[in-house]
Amino acid sequence: MKLPGATTTWARLISRRLLHRPSQSQLQSQAHRSSSSSFTSSGVLSQRRCCSGSSSGEDSDGNQDEFHDFPGAKAGFTSKLKYVPETPAEAVPCFRILDEYGRLIKDSHMPEIDKALVLKIYQNMVTLQSMDSLFFEAQRQGRFSFYLTSFGEEAITIASAAALSDDDMVYAQYREPGVLMWRGFTLNEFANQCFSNDLDYGKGRQMPIHYGSAKLNYATVSSPIATQLPHAVGAAYAFKMDQKPLCSATYFGDGATSEGDFHGAMNFAAVLEAPVLFICRNNGYAISTPAHEQFKGDGVVCKGQAYGVRSFRVDGNDALAVYATVKAARKMAVEESRPILIEALTYRVGHHSTSDDSGKYRKGDEMHHWKTMRDPVVRLRRWLEGEGWWDSDADQQLRAETRNEVIAAMQRAGPRMKQPLANLFTDVYDTIPSHLRQQEKELRSTVARHRQDYPFDVPL
Amino acid sequence: MGGRRASLPLVSRLCTSVKPRNNWVQKRSFITAKDLVVEEQPSGEEEKRAVTNKLNLFSAVNQALLTVLESDPKSYVFGEDVGFGGVFRCTTGLRDRFGKHRVFNTPLCEQAILGFGIGLASMGNRAIAEIQFADYIFPALDQIVNEAAKYRYRSGNLFNCGGLTVRAPYGAVGHGGHYHSQSPEAFFCHVPGIKVVIPRSPAQAKGLLLASIRDPNPVVFFEPKMLYRMAVEEVPVDDYTLPLSSAEVMRKGSDITLVGWGAQLTLMEQACDEASKEGISCELIDLRTLIPWDKELVEASVNKTGRLLVSHEAPLTGGFGAEIAASITESCFLRLEAPVSRVCGLDTPFPLVFEPFYMPTKNKILDAIKASVKF
Ligand SMILES: Cc1ncc(C[n+]2csc(CCOP(=O)(O)OP(=O)(O)O)c2C)c(N)n1
Ligand SMILES: [Mg+2]
To answer: Is residue A251's pLDDT more than 50?
Structure first.
């Protein structure tokens, strides 16, 4: 079975470890780094002998241990006409700890994680599933205008959030309410936003699912794809300058990696040595566009090296592996002040959104397979059951409880009034400029003349 | 296909090859909103009458694209999710019919969609790019403003990218919030070297899109997504174009001139109807092309009525209404009997729950018409 978004085969994964053997090119770049202290010239073309034993030993063409410090790059020489292949001979293997059946893989890099934490991860994943099912239904019934689920990707957001510090700033795309949920955003708060009611922190201005919370260090979601990535780099740079032991984490899809903002952000992060985690949910699709029409090469993980950014590839449907990866990545980012790219391989089980019918562009059996055989929630539950920490009674009870909580949250949020009209004009600027005061005045007199044109659940 | 047929069976042309008939074009008011004029074919061909089909706006766009792909082998249609038919179904069936080399998905990168389109067009092709929402055209602004618009001028006409057309759905739909509602036309009207075209109905969309694609200048073509399904009218099956830079009088009147474009005209028509009940006769003009715009027609109308109202969904300040107001004030100053009136979106980001308050509604327009007449 192949993931739609990457070429790693599952058979190969099982025997692999978190840190795969460094490739030839990595060894070479390490050799360059270790010899770079012998470069003294600044910008002037110069050749120097450096320590012998270059790692490019395969092509012993006599000058492999010479390095040229061009202003644009430092490189050894070869007299062979060679190209760098478009993809490495082997795809980067995908790290996982649990197999498809939730069994611990022998010798795997199991993170330090206690029972309470894993149970909390699992409970959040179940709550997210419940919220998604019921909110999706509510949208279908016309109770709010739009919704978008995280089905199939619950492990990525929740297990990664568990591995971050709650003080780390998060810059999400839109399919990451799991991070907020982990940090304590309540079902009421989610429902308030989707209903655009008087308690919505975004003041009813944005479409459903555009959550944000200053208290929980989660920048408000914005629809344009990939725009949040450079923001995360700027915020990370601020943490570094302020000497705070924090990083920022930005989440995005496979599609987002095509935007210029992804490339700019990666490069900035590398050059400015910013402690930022780039967490890509490679779920195989950007709306209808399959990942193989989005990019060539070995998925997303390979792009890190091009920017000089350390990278991981992890099975996004294995909550424990995601936790271990993000935990390790965060430590590197914060302690070494460096960006890290994480590609989490997964599958978008739901439609892109309530505006989409994915039956038009992908096969039902593909969806069905991922839904029934590869569900990250089921995988973690099986492991928990194997450990003796969970059973089907507990599961049924949890599911019934979360269902009721979601329904109750909607019942509370739905009937509330919408945001008051005054909030149409505030926050455009820090204070309301005179031309907007004038427009507000005119609008209010129009509304007074034509009350029937305007909704009654928006208080005037 | 339940087409309305005037005489000879031509319905099948929709699905078979359509020969371009370039001389059968450019007749002002060939199609009006109320009364579709069925024209005779040019001489040389067997005498036929145009066949029409009842189509909504997205299907009319689809027909225009199909017509071009069929009549010009050097034409290409591309953009995000275009392959399966596009998120608004405008490209449905085209990849199956013309192959994935001429109709294709692009990676999610608007600046590259535009840059690629410029290169493709500069090699003598018709590059028809789709930006999924007008709200997402901004990453491509550099390519449009600094490249497409200046390609001809900066090279002394050695090179041009006139074969480029960018389509993007724009405007309010009732629940789009900030990023699925905006009307960014004014940004592009500030850029010499490109044309900006906005149709108001299916038949207009087909004719204006075909004209935009065949125009030897880069064109930004905004489609009113509110009308994709809602607006339905008889659309000629054949290949036809409607003239660019030519506004159209949708209804004649004597007391005030109303100028608008795209979906806003639907509301303006309703306001005209209500105004006429109160004895006010409105002349309604669809500008159709925003730059270069048909100033002569608007001037002539204002010289007749003595009053002007412009209405658009985009924010008031710096909207294209401001340009029309300033120009007409300059040229018709002595004839104006009231200040030029603008009924536009508010100077706020486009808001979700406050959309009904933000919008330039029928009653706002009607109030402004009355105020202008009473002035
Ligand atoms: C700049 C921009 N262009 C286009 C869109 C429309 N759009 C919304 S989501 C999406 C696909 C994103 O795919 P991906 O990054 O893989 O995230 P996923 O939905 O799979 O989680 C597109 C094209 C947008 N929101 N912003
Ligand atoms: Mg995706």
So the answer is: yes
Q: Nearest C-alpha of chain A: how many angstroms from B108?
A: 5
Distances (CA, A) of A176 to A183, A200, A281, A419: 12, 18, 10, 25
State how many domains chain A has.
Answer: 3
Predicted complex: ipTM over 0.90: no
Strands A218-219 and A276-282 come out as: unpaired
Q: How much is the pLDDT for A6?
A: 58
| Number of domains into which chain B is organized | 2
Q: Residue type for B325, please?
A: A
Q: Which whole number is the average pLDDT over B334-363?
A: 98
Q: At B195, which CATH number?
A: 3.40.50.970
B70 with B121: CB under 8 angstroms? no
Q: What is the pLDDT of residue B33?
A: 36
Distance B116 CA to ligand 2 centre (A): 23
Same-domain status, A123 and A208: yes
A222 CB neighbours in chain B (<8 A) are: 178-179
Please judge whether B139 and A204 are an interchain contact, meaning their C-beta atoms are less than 8 angstroms apart. no
What are B25-75's pLDDT values in tens digits? 333 333 433 333 333 344 444 444 579 999 999 999 999 999 999 999 999
A329 and A378, same domain (yes or no) = yes
User: Is the CB of A210 inside 8 Å of chain B's CB atoms?
Assistant: yes
Q: B324 and B269, same structural domain? A: yes
A26 and A129 fall within a common domain = no
Q: Are residues B61 and B13 in the same domain?
A: yes
Contact B108, A258 (CB under 8 A): yes
Q: Whose CA is nearest to atom 11 of ligand 1?
A: A286
A26 belongs to a structural domain: yes
In a domain, B353, yes or no: yes
**How far apart, in whole angstroms, are the C-alpha atoms of residue A182 and residue A178?**
6
Tell whether B181 and B316 lie within a shared domain: no
Q: What is the pLDDT of residue A73?
A: 85
Judged by CB atoms closer than 8 Å, whether chains meet at B354 and A419 is answered as yes
First to last CA, chain A: 57
Residue type, A33: R
Q: Which residue puts its alpha carbon closest to atom 7 of ligand 1? A: A225
Residue B147 DSSP one-character state: I
Q: Which atom of ligand 1 is nearest to the CA of A253?
A: 15
Looking at the fold, whether A28 and A111 belong to one and the same domain comes out as no
Residue A348, ligand 1, Cβ within 6 A: yes
Q: Which domain holds residue B281?
A: 248-374
Query: How do beta strands B126-130 and A218-219 pair?
Result: unpaired
Contacts of A425 in chain B (CB under 8 A): 348
Ligand 1 pocket test, candidate residues A258, A287, A367, A370, most atoms within 8 A of CB: A287
Banded pLDDT at A4 (limits 50, 70, 90): low
Q: What's the whole-model pTM score?
A: 0.88
Residue A187 domain-assigned? yes
For residue A2, being part of any structural domain is answered with no
The mean pLDDT value for B179-184 works out to 98
pLDDT at residue A72, rounded to an integer: 85
d(CA B375, CA B370): 8
More confident residue, B37 or A168: A168
pLDDT class of A48 with cuts at 50, 70, 90 = very low
Q: Are residues B15 and B164 in the same domain?
A: yes
B119 lies in some domain: yes
The mean pLDDT of B249-256, rounded to a whole number, is 98
For residue B328, give the CATH number of its domain. Answer: 3.40.50.920
Claim to verify: residue B190 and residue B328 sit in the same structural domain: no
Confidence class for position A41, pLDDT limits 50, 70, 90: very low
Q: What is the mean pLDDT of residues B187-212?
A: 98
DSSP designation for A378: H
Q: Give the active site residues of B.
A: 110, 180
Which percentage of chain B shows pLDDT scores above 70?
Answer: 87
Whether B222 and B297 map to the same domain: the answer is no
Contact A351 CB / ligand 1 (< 6 Å): no
Q: Is residue B103 part of a domain?
A: yes
**Residue B292 preceded by cis peptide, ω within 30:** yes
Residue A304 has pLDDT above 60, yes or no: yes
Can you read off the two tokens belonging to residue B234?
């008889």
Residue A295 is part of which domain span? 95-413
In single-letter form, the type of residue at position A346 comes to T
A438 vs B: CB within 8 A: no
